[in-house]
UniProtKB/TrEMBL annotation:
Organism (species): Microbacterium invictum
Name of the molecule in the record: N-acetylneuraminate synthase family protein
InterPro entries for this protein: Aldolase_TIM, PseI-like, PseI/NeuA/B-like_N
Every PseI/NeuA/B-like domain range: 36-272
Domain of life: Bacteria
Database matches in Pfam families: NeuB
Annotated signal peptide: none
Length: 290
């Protein structure tokens, strides 16, 4: 089964759908967001993704008043969340820039009003963050949009994943194997969950959302059949913010996309053949013909 997001088709032997997760790495600055869109486009990714919250709803009660040191001074965690959110006009500016650069864009809504906000902007799909996998009201709102949904499965049990899939349905659904640690250590990647999810949910495309340092784990995911790859991106891993350290800088993103395409070409179709390029070595080296 395949899922179509904008002009791209995911699954069914199509090239891996590469998502540059900008998330909150724009630090509330539209110009940084646009520079990250440029980085993604220059690297050859298919889409960029943001995060959309209504801070008063999505911020856990016990976190709201905790002081946070920020580039704008010390403020409560709730005020920090407000500070880094984009409004409608800012998202329109971001959307226009992404479209100009030939990229799809969408976001992870963290609450039902954010779904409505994104729908008003005409996004082509929605992404469910791992932290929201158990929010059935949010999942129901996303299902009711009729748009494709990409569901990350970090910090979740198989029972919880199954429950989320039951709410969303399997039409126009892409599952993303993930481990929600930032940055993730390789021994926690558990990439064999990619074929395990394919077996558990037949016909549902399965990809990989990574938070590791480097490229090796994401490339191994493609070799194991991941039909989509999502990685956080940043201008500089030393920038202030919680996700930058687990993100790819511009050169790393370029190498990721390049190497994914090389791996896809190298995987082939599983049909054994003798290539024309082998004829010369065969004539030179093979002593017994049959």
């Amino acid at each position: 089964m395949t899922v179509t997001i904008g002009t791209r088709v995911i699954g069914g032997g199509h090239p891996a759908y590469v998502i540059g997760e900008i998330g909150l790495n724009h630090n509330g600055d539209v110009e940084i967001a646009k520079r990250l869109i440029d980085v993604a486009a220059d690297a050859g990714v298919d889409a960029v993704k943001f995060q959309k919250r209504t801070p008063e709803i999505s911020t856990p009660e016990h976190m709201r008043d905790i002081p946070r040191e920020t580039p704008w001074g010390t403020m409560s965690y709730l005020d920090y969340r407000r500070r880094v959110e984009f409004d409608r006009d800012q998202y329109i500016e971001i959307s226009d820039h992404a479209i100009l650069r030939g990229l799809e864009w969408f976001a992870s809504p963290w609450d039902v009003p954010s779904v409505e906000f994104l729908e008003d902007l005409g996004v082509v799909a929605h992404k469910v963050a791992s932290a929201c996998l158990t929010d059935r009201a949010l999942l129901s709102a996303l299902r009711d949009t009729g748009k494709p949904v990409i569901l990350s499965t970090g910090m979740s049990t198989m029972e919880q994943i199954t429950g989320a899939v039951e709410v969303l349905g399997t039409d126009d659904l892409v599952l993303m194997h993930a481990t929600s640690t930032y940055p993730m250590e390789p021994e926690e990647a558990n990439l064999r969950m990619i074929p395990a999810l394919r077996e558990r949910f037949p016909g549902v495309p399965v990809g990989y959302s990574g938070h590791e340092r480097g490229l090796q784990v994401s490339l191994a995911a493609v070799a194991l059949g991941a039909v989509a790859v999502e990685r956080h991106i940043t201008l500089d891993r030393t920038m202030w913010g919680s996700d930058h350290a687990a993100s790819l800088e511009p050169a790393g993103l370029q190498h990721l996309v390049r190497d994914i395409r090389i791996i896809e070409a190298a995987l082939g179709d599983g049909v054994k053949r003798v290539y024309d390029s082998e004829q010369g070595p065969m004539a030179k080296l093979r002593r017994v013909a049959t």
